[in-house]
Design brief:
723 residues, two-stranded antiparallel sheet, seven-stranded mixed sheet, Rossmann fold, alpha/beta, 31 helices
Length: 723
């Protein structure tokens, strides 16, 4: 019978933990969320000899202090789920920084293995680590690995299994000893816990340390077990904290942190030799340019410009192929299926809905590949560093800019990316700001309206719209922080990891994981929404037309047959083109009236009083309603409602002008599209990542902001005589 072992992988961000996890599990992994929290959960399986290994990738964190969701999640999993062993992935080139988390893992009293990853980077920096001495000092196995080259992975698994077997035979973890006064406090609290017969999860020593650190989560657990006994224990901890403060004039946590770093300094002195103290630090030299006060922002803007150019220009080719494939499938089905409501549903609802998602997959893959490239090389952390000062104006820090940056591609993965933020308040605030960023789906609307009404200035208008979205997002953040998220800002360590050569396998895994989630969350939502829009625009079937369009068509066909019979051969082609144009105009007018009297047309007429003050007619208001499903369908809806094909940009622009739309009302509509409620998939994602309350608030708030901004622009223009 195979033996099952659960392994938890822990480590700092950028230590190579995910690379090792991918090497261990390959395709045998699944991604989800931890129960009750929005932190990403990764699990994978590995068969090794007679063992079935379940490997859990814990959230990257710098400590186990209960400050962020990631720290609490990692700590609670180790304590409550009882993994057989915790493997701590350590950046061998930054041993001192990494050992702070390692010391706290040892305090948990669980079986552990320390992995010195990126050994080649440490060697390149002239750092030599005596792993045998380190293992002897810590009382646990230590192995070297090079994750991005898949070296040392087998040794890691072998040592982990052997350590589990040692604990099964009675081995105990070694305590990390601190200064005399700290140890005296730990001993007093431990004794008090034993005297009160409190049986609680976790090592006795670890619980004593947490009570001395005034850990609220651990204190609540003690309180729930026995309120009477907990008072006695809390009083002892309080007395110890006071004594430490009287002696050192600092809180217990600070004194203990100093002791931990003292232990780390001793370990470093015993086990590390620096062979090249004066070696040039390549990462630091690169940062002289990329994080420079004057050059950093222009370079960053160039990289972002290049990312979007690559995403849209390179993605245009496979997008065209997918579009052609979908059109071919529709053509085949259209010819072979008999006319029926089921056929309309299949072509205009199901295939159109799925196609509207799949067609953007190449752009999304390329965009996420670039973002993964930024992350794996270490540049994404520099982007957060550069934008930190700007983001502080809305009460956030630079790390919040990363999800907002992703919002230029799509708001759904951007909102999911807020999981990296430590503070729940910062996470919700960033989620509420992100929909104001101009996602790629809004660009077709800008191109049609700006191109039709602003001609040579269209590019400038579109740039101003993107810039306006950023400004509105930051101003909204400032307002919402003052109203709903009062309190001290969460501290943010500007961690700048060393630059690394990205591994193609890791980039592809990251790219596909995110794109897969995008398809999973978007596909079903857009499909259902498209079917609803199809139904609203297709019913009721019995419509009383103001004109007998069928009679007009028959008359034109009869007249054409008479004219063409008498025309010379050289005139036949010209007459045929005129005939087709007249036929199309009548069909478009018929479709326009049909849609205006459908349920969705009735909705548009009902909304007309709401949109009239901002210069938007009922046809455009219906297009905005359909845009709630996906912003991509705004242009195609306008094409139908204004009586032209959605793919005929010049004709649509002419129809918009003929309908009475002006440059001012077009600008008002673009402002509204920029700011109003995001697509249905984004609202659903906000609900899943926060709550129904915040999803509903976002829907109302964004619409109010959009209407207010459009009203201000339109009415100001009317007063000034623009248009």
């Amino acid at each position: 019978m195979r033996k099952k072992i659960t392994i938890a992988l822990a480590g700092n961000p950028n230590c190579g933990k995910t690379t090792i996890f991918n090497n261990l599990t390959g395709a045998r992994q699944k991604v989800g969320n931890w129960p009750g929290v929005t932190v990403e959960k990764k699990e994978g399986r590995l068969k090794y000899k007679e063992y079935d290994l379940n490997i859990v990738d814990l959230p990257g964190t710098y400590s186990l202090t209960p400050f962020s969701i990631e720290e609490i999640t990692a700590r609670d999993f180790i304590l409550n789920e009882n993994p057989d062993i915790v493997i701590n992935i350590i950046d061998a080139s930054s041993l001192e920084r990494s050992l702070f988390l390692a010391i706290q893992i040892m305090e948990l009293g669980r079986p552990a293995l320390f992995v010195l990853n990126m050994a080649d980077v440490a060697e390149a920096k002239g750092i030599r680590i005596d792993e045998k001495k380190l293992s002897q000092l810590l009382g646990l196995p230590v192995v070297f690995t090079i994750g991005n080259k898949n070296r040392g992975i087998d040794g890691l698994v072998k040592e982990a299994i052997e350590e589990v077997n040692r604990f099964d035979k009675g081995k105990e973890s070694r305590d990390v000893k601190y200064s005399k006064e700290i140890e005296r406090c730990i001993s007093r609290v431990k004794t008090r816990i034993l005297e009160n017969n409190i049986n609680i999860d976790g090592a006795l020593r670890w619980n004593a340390i947490k009570l001395l650190e005034d850990d609220k989560i651990v204190k609540n657990r003690f309180q729930n077990l026995s309120s009477k006994a907990s008072k006695d224990i809390f009083q002892t901890a309080k007395e110890c904290r006071k004594r430490v403060y009287d002696l050192f004039e600092d809180d217990f946590e600070i004194v203990l942190t100093d002791d931990r770093y003292g232990v780390i300094a001793g370990i470093i002195k015993e086990t590390v030799t620096n062979l090249a103290i004066k070696r040039i630090d390549i990462s630091r030299n690169i940062d002289l340019v990329l994080t420079n006060r004057f050059l950093g922002i222009p370079v960053f803007i160039f990289f972002i410009w290049a990312m979007f150019q690559l995403s849209f220009n390179l993605g245009a080719y496979p997008m065209e192929w997918i579009d052609m494939s979908i059109s071919a499938v529709c053509g085949i089905l259209d010819k072979n299926l008999p006319a029926s409501m089921l056929k309309d549903l299949l072509l205009d609802g199901v295939i159109a809905g799925i196609g509207s998602v799949i067609i953007f997959l190449p752009n999304i893959l390329i965009l996420f590949f670039c973002i993964a490239l930024f992350e794996d090389t270490g540049y994404m952390a520099r982007a957060a560093f550069l934008m930190d000062r700007v983001m502080h104006t809305s009460g956030l820090h630079g790390k919040s800019f990363i999800p907002m940056l992703m919002g230029f591609g799509c708001s759904v993965p951007a909102i999911m990316a807020t999981k990296t933020l430590e503070s729940p308040k910062d996470r919700i605030l960033t989620i509420l700001m992100t929909p104001f960023m101009s996602c790629s789906a809004k660009l077709p609307v800008y191109i049609v309206l700006a191109g039709s009404f602003f001609a040579q200035k269209a590019g400038t208008v579109i740039f101003v719209l993107y810039f306006t979205g950023i400004v509105i997002a930051i101003l909204s953040g400032r307002l919402l922080r003052a109203v709903f998220f009062k309190g001290q800002e969460a501290p943010f360590i500007m961690e700048l990891p060393p630059y690394r050569m990205p591994m193609l396998k890791s980039l592809l895994i990251h790219m596909w994981d995110r794109s897969k989630m995008f398809l999973k969350k978007m596909g079903g939502v857009i499909l259902v929404g498209s079917i609803i829009i199809w139904a609203l625009s297709s019913f009721p079937k019995s419509i009383s037309y103001s004109v007998d369009f069928d009679k007009q068509l028959n008359e034109i066909k009869y007249d054409f047959s008479q004219i063409i019979a008498e025309a010379s051969d050289d005139k036949t082609e010209e007459l045929t083109m005129q005939f087709n144009l007249e036929i199309k105009n009548i069909e478009n007018r018929k479709e326009l009236e049909r849609v205006s009297k459908s349920y969705i047309g009735q909705i548009g007429k009902a909304l007309e009083p709401f949109f009239a003050p901002i210069g938007i007619g009922w046809q455009a208001s219906v297009a905005l309603v359909t845009g709630f499903v996906a912003k991509e369908v705004v242009v195609s809806t306008m094409g139908v409602l204004y009586g032209v094909g959605s793919d005929e940009g010049n004709t649509l622009g002419k129809a918009l002008k003929e309908s009475g739309m002006t440059a001012l009302s077009a600008l008002s509509m673009m402002i509204f599209v920029l700011l109003y409620v995001p697509c249905f998939a984004t609202v659903v994602t906000i609900y899943r990542e926060t709550s129904a309350k915040w999803a509903g608030f976002n829907l109302i708030y964004t619409t109010m902001v959009a209407w207010g901004a459009s009203f201000l622009v339109y009415q100001t223009g009317v007063i000034l005589g623009a248009g």
